[in-house]
């Protein structure tokens, strides 16, 4: 059955089927049709064009006067499988407690890790399902989810099995990333080498043989995993068919970008701390720069230099980093505002980063991220708004009227 959407004020992000990742200043171009129609057949985009060429033989019609349509958000970096929120740490931070105080009171990643051990697979699935349902209602139409709160073979596998079940239960594409190298568990505090061996010799082969993840991630930062350790872990992942996609340069100029590029990472994510060397390294690579401004906002740390990256012709994607510690939100409309206000990205640049480049950062560009014939009919219909710029400008306001997934309205 076909559905016809008529009188669309602006149909945005119209691209050819083989559109490459959008780089640098080209990100300010947003292909669109004003006063447009869109036809959806089954789960796919069938056709589109100007209203004066609108087909007349379709019965099921939805009038979109005054409203915009663009692809759903592609959120390429999240940690939405977790046992419990950590708002007690939020309160401690407000009251001026240090990171050490919080860790001593049982906070931080190790807090999440302990709770994962105490929580059943079913409970984890239920709580992540609730989060994911909420995110789709807010316009997310594809998502990547990481493990990394297990930090033992059994618990990492449990997290990845939950991600697999989410993928089977939900109508949007979900990509799984193994992040065993997120932190060192308590019992390996003084023996990092033994934990790295556990990741390389036991976790990676098991995960690969059960096909529980497509990507491998490492938290490459001073005090966590060094560039040499990151390289070893990525190499082991690659040998087992896992593709790198890593946390880099959040807290320090750590060399994380370079080790990601060396291993042909799909993306290097965070990049709050960058220097000329890291930028020129990225510039001469196929790796996407994925920025996570919600994390900078919540922690009060510097924002990534989005403009310098774009001026160097680097493709930028934006993702939420939704996690219980540093970014307890997956709201992509708010992220859109932060990208414009804090990263100084123009609305067109941010929309490219949130859709087609996010799709590339999950290798889903062949079926999502743009309004393209035969791509999945995953798109957002806005309320009646004056312009695209109004969405990031009116931060905190919900400009989304409805979300379509596989051609059906999502409730
Ligand atoms: Zn993250």
Notable characteristics:
single chain; 411 residues; alpha/beta; Urease, subunit C, domain 1; TIM Barrel; nine-stranded parallel β-sheet; eight-stranded mixed β-sheet; 15 helices; 17 strands; 35% helix; binds zinc ion
How is this structure best summarized?
The chain has helices spanning 87-94, 99-104, 109-118, 121-137, 153-169, 192-209, 227-239, 256-262, 276-283, 293-299, 306-311, 332-341, 347-354, 356-360, 390-393, and strands at 2-12, 32-41, 44-50, 61-63, 67-71, 73-75, 140-146, 174-181, 215-220, 243-244, 246-248, 267-270, 288-291, 316-318, 379-384, 400-405, 408-409.
Describe this structure as you would to a colleague.
The strands form two sheets. Strands 6, 7, 8, 9, 10, 11, 12, 13 and 14 form a nine-stranded parallel beta sheet that branches. Strands 1, 2, 3, 4, 5, 15, 16 and 17 form an eight-stranded mixed beta sheet that branches. Helices cover 35% and strands 22% of the residues. Helix 8 links the parallel strand 11 (246-248) and strand 12. It is globular, with a radius of gyration of 21 Å. The longest helix has 18 residues, at 192-209. The chain is built from 15 helices and 17 strands. It has two domains: 2-71 and 370-409, Urease, subunit C, domain 1; 74-360, Alpha-Beta Barrel (TIM Barrel), CATH 3.20.20.140. The mean pLDDT is 96. The chain is of the alpha/beta class and 411 residues long. The protein binds zinc ion.
Find the count of extended strands (DSSP E, 2+ residues).
17
What ligand molecules are bound, each kind once? zinc ion
Structurally, the number of domains stands at 2
Helix percentage range = 25-40%
Q: Looking at the structure, what is the overall shape?
A: globular
Class of secondary structure makeup? alpha/beta
The percent range for strand residues is 15-25%
């Amino acid at each position: 059955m076909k559905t016809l959407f008529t009188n669309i004020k602006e149909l945005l992000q119209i691209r050819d089927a083989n559109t490459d990742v959008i780089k640098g200043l080209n990100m300010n171009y947003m292909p669109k049709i004003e006063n447009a129609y869109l036809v959806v057949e089954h789960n796919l985009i069938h056709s589109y064009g100007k209203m004066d060429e609108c087909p007349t033989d379709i019965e099921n019609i939805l009038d979109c006067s005054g409203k915009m349509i663009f692809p759903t958000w592609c959120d390429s970096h999240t940690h939405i499988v977790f046992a419990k929120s950590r708002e007690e740490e939020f309160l401690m931070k407000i009251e001026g407690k240090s990171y050490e105080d919080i860790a001593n009171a049982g906070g931080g990643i190790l807090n999440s890790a302990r709770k994962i051990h105490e929580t059943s697979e079913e409970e984890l699935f239920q709580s992540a399902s609730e989060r994911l349902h909420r995110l789709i209602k807010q316009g997310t139409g594809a998502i990547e989810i990481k493990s990394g709160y297990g930090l033992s073979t059994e618990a990492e596998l449990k997290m990845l099995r939950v991600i697999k079940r989410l993928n089977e239960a939900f109508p949007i594409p979900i990509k799984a990333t193994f992040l065993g190298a997120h932190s060192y568990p308590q019992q390996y505090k003084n023996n990092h080498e033994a934990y790295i061996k556990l990741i390389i010799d036991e976790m990676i082969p098991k995960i690969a043989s059960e096909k529980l993840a497509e990507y491998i991630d490492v938290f490459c930062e001073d005090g966590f995993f060094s560039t040499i350790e990151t390289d070893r872990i990525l190499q082991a992942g690659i040998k087992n068919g896992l593709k790198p996609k890593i946390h880099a340069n959040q807290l320090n100029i750590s060399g994380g970008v370079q080790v990601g590029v060396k291993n042909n990472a799909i993306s290097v994510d965070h990049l709050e701390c960058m220097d000329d060397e890291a930028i020129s390294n990225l510039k001469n690579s196929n790796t996407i720069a994925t920025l996570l401004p919600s994390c900078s906002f919540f922690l009060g740390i510097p924002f990534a230099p989005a403009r310098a990256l774009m001026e160097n012709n680097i493709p930028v994607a934006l993702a939420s980093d939704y996690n219980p510690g540093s970014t307890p939100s997956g709201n992509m409309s708010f992220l859109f505002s932060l990208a414009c206000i804090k990263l100084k990205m123009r609305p067109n640049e941010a929309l490219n980063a949130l859709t087609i480049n996010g799709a590339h950062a999950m290798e889903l560009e062949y079926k999502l991220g743009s309004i393209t014939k035969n791509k999945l009919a995953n798109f957002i219909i806005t309320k009646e708004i004056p312009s695209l710029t109004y969405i990031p400008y009116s931060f905190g306001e919900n400009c989304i009227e409805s979300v379509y997934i596989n051609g059906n309205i999502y409730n």
